[in-house]
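Milestone M4 deliverable, item 7.
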Amino acid sequence: MSEAAERVTFCDPIWSALRAQAVELAGMEPSIASLAHATILNHERLEDALSYHLARKIGGEELSAMQSREFFGEALEADGGIGDAVRADLSAVVERDPACHSFIQAFLFFKGFHALQCHRIAHWLWGSGRTTLAYFLQSRVSGLFAVDIHPAARIGRGLMMDHATGIVIGETAVVEDDVSMLHGVTLGGSGKEKGDRHPKIRHGVLLSAGAKVLGNIEVGEYSRVGAGSVVLSSVPAHCTVAGVPARVIGCAGSDRPSQSMDQSIGPTASET
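Output delivered:
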């Protein structure tokens, strides 16, 4: 590793941990040692590794991996906030998902993480006026990962999309920091209305599997939406809603539901 790379690694604990885990993986599983080297160990920064890894997944007949890597790298260089969000997302997955045991596991294999980072690039393209390429990336991600996020949707950092299959997020949706959502979540419109028509998910919310939040409504901070619920009206902060249509059934069960990931919706000890 170059002296410059050593300085970057020292100042970047997520990247340092990811590299150490790649070395361990290469030693433990020689059959995929080349993957660890090509994807992580051959790069000096997390941003470089990410652009390489995602470009290999996105690249195809219409747009090569090399071409894909060019605009991935361009976005990551132009907007340092994307790299910060990537690190927060990685930390969120490792901390909240009991099936994830390392940064490298999420980085290499978790399609929710991959889809989210592709959206971050698509959102940058959208904001840069390159809407056709942004739509192409959205379509490619939808086909590869079964996650469909409109490039204009605004998504904060520290997000976890567990399993991720079937997640749909509409054009004018807003998802703030530290939100967790499981497979089958929809943040959609309620009909054919134009303009600002999608949900606003505030800080620290937990959206359980199959939850549907429809229309220009707000889910207040640190609230929970129960599995399979259909939310058609705004949700107060620090509450749990469930049902079809969803209604408030109690408090959120914890101060930080997106981090505790407790999806039980029975009465809490304080409510009994």
